[in-house]
Amino acid sequence: MDTYLLDWANLLLRWAHVIVAIAWIGSSFYFVFLDNSLTRPQDPELKAKLWKEYEEYKKSRAKP
Description:
Layout: H1 2-37, H2 44-61
C-alpha cells in the first residue's frame, strides 16, 4: 500500500513540475513582450523630469 501511494505522489509531483515549468516559461515570454513594447518618451521636458526623479531616487537609496 505504501508503494502504491508513493507512486501516485511521484506522478502528481512530476505533473505539477511540468505545469509549473510551462507557466514559468509562459510568464517569462509575457514579461519580455511587455518590456519590448515600452517606448522612450519623445518630449524633452518629460525626459528631463523623469531623469530628475531618477536621480533623486538614486540619492535616497544611497548608503550614508
